[in-house]
Amino acid sequence: MNILGSSPANSLRVLGPDSQRWAARPEANVIEAQTGLQEPLLHLLAENQQLRRERDHALASARTAESALERAVQASGTDVLTALPNRLILQDRLAHEVLLAERHDTPLLLLYIDVDDFKQVNDRYGHPVGDALLQGIARRLQAAVRVSDSVCRMGGDEFVVLMSAIDPAEAERVVRKVVEAVEPALAIEEHILHPRVSIGFALYPRDGRTPAQLIRSADACMYRIKQMRHRAA
Q1: Closest C-alpha to 129, from 66, 186, 63
Q2: Within 13 Å of residue 225, how many CA atoms lie on the same side as its CB?
Q3: What is the set of active-site residues?
Q4: pLDDT at 5
Q5: How far apart are alpha carbons 223 and 209 in whole angstroms?
Q6: Pairing verdict, β 158-164 and 186-188
Q7: Which residue, among 43, 39, 36, has the nearest Cα to 20 in the 3D structure?
Q8: Mean model confidence pLDDT for the chain
Q9: CATH fold of 87-232, please?
């Protein structure tokens, strides 16, 4: 007995408002012939298509997020302006070098470098020129030291150079060499700039046995030199 009061063949012809559009689709006849449930299956097909689109979108978003995370992790250790290692990388390298210096009983030299009157450059010529000046100084610092040394940007107009296995008696000579490399005139756009830097230094273990102590000692030394230069001017 047919509960619906009609034969399955008849039930195939009880169609909704979209019956003509559905009947024109190639899969319509197959579905009608097999189940007689045309409209519910049309709805299921639409839902499946939507789910596939949502899945594809989610996968694409996940790939984009993963790529962005990888770029962020890489960028987190690099100063955007100068492409030098930043403060985070400096901390890691300094901690590593201090451990090696302690283990092998070798000296370690840290230079703390500040660009004199940098604010005046920005105020007079604009920030693009100031940025180009910092980039030029970064290149000169890298060229002035060994490949094994680390040149890092602390932020603003401050840089740090980390040099291992340097004879303490050579520290002042190294500072002079860096000054001579950085301070020649630098052409930026139509301007000729004459950068000047104040450099303080700290030696391990004389001026500190921890990364924080060495940075504080070098920073304090740099500040004293800057003050003396201002008084002498």
Answers
A1: 186
A2: 19
A3: 157
A4: 44
A5: 21
A6: unpaired
A7: 39
A8: 83
A9: Alpha-Beta Plaits (3.30.70)
Task: Give the per-residue pLDDT at 27.
Answer: 52
The pTM for the full model equals 0.69
C-beta of residue 141 within 8 angstroms of C-beta of residue 178: yes
- Directed axis angle between helix 171-182 and helix 127-144, to 10°? 140
The first and second tokens of residue 183, run together, are 């301070």
Tokens 């910092």, residue? 134
- In angstroms, rounded to a whole number, what is the distance separating the alpha carbons of residues 68 and 74? 10
DSSP annotation string for 101-127 = HHHHT--EEEEEEEETTHHHHHHHH-H
Domain ranges of the chain: 1-75, 87-232
Q: Find the range with the poorest average confidence among 65-74, 113-122, 125-134, 180-189.
A: 65-74
Distance CA 145, CA 151 (A): 8
Q: What tokens were used for 59?
A: 């996968």
Spatial contact of 130 and 118, defined as CB atoms under 8 Å apart: yes
Sign of CA dihedral 204, 206, 210, 215: negative
Any idea which residue has 């060499």 for tokens? 177
pLDDT of res. 59? 73
Rounded to whole angstroms, how far apart are CA atoms 224 and 7? 102
Q: Which two tokens stand for residue 155?
A: 């932020």
| Residue 202 predicted with pLDDT over 60 | yes
